[in-house]
């Protein structure tokens, strides 16, 4: 099977890290695709044109991060699954919270990529407030011992702040968030993290759009 990604995409990075964490590199080929490009090799498989997209051997294209993780999890024994289930509601809540934060950061970043006269100060202010609010909550959660297991919430957290670090530098997320920063820094030595660091730039298209 084949996983389409873009090096700058924080959503696709979660899936790429999952492939490595689950030991699926010999079963899942990782292919880079261009985004927002009518000639992209992704479009015949996924008309939505977004990554991650996981194309199964029968041609079925699984899209959106969580369904992709569900499919990847299904390839390994349950004890190694990354996605939390309803029996671990705190972990499920943590994963959802980080994904929600990522959605907001993506909107914020997209707004900043517009020509200045097209930007909405209202949207930027709203998304900045949202990001600060969630990051403060994540700081409290990490300080209390949260995000310790290497599950989907942990991978999503690393991906969101990795994106902020490299492609959304306007958000000074480390400021007054020592627990979060320490967790993020410690994660960098994991092979799944070290091997998927996004290129510096802006947005999700490579190298710098
Ligand atoms: N809700 C999707 C979001 C995926 C997404 O927005 N991916 C971006 C890259 S970070 C993309 O492919 N954008 C291309 C486009 O908008 O055309 C998910 O959970 O995977």
Structure write-up:
Helix 3 (89-113) runs parallel beside helix 5. The protein has helices at residues 10-21, 65-73, 89-113, 121-143, 152-166, 178-187, 191-194; strands at 2-5, 29-32, 53-55, 61-63. The relative contact order is 0.17. With 209 residues, the protein is α+β, with helices and mostly antiparallel strands. The protein folds into two domains: 2-80, Glutaredoxin (3-Layer(aba) Sandwich); 89-190, Glutathione S-transferase Yfyf (Class Pi), Chain A, domain 2. It is 47% helix and 7% strand. The chain contains seven helices and four strands. It has a four-stranded mixed beta sheet with strand order 2-1-3-4, with helices on one face. Glutathione (GSH) binds at residues 6, 9-11, 35-36, 49-52, 64-65, 106, 204.
Task: Give a quick summary of the entry.
By secondary structure, the chain is of the alpha+beta class.
Can you lay out the helices and strands and say which pair or pack?
Blueprint: E1 2-5, H1 10-21, E2 29-32, E3 53-55, E4 61-63, H2 65-73, H3 89-113, H4 121-143, H5 152-166, H6 178-187, H7 191-194
Parallel strand pairs: 1-2
Antiparallel strand pairs: 1-3, 3-4
The chain binds glutathione.
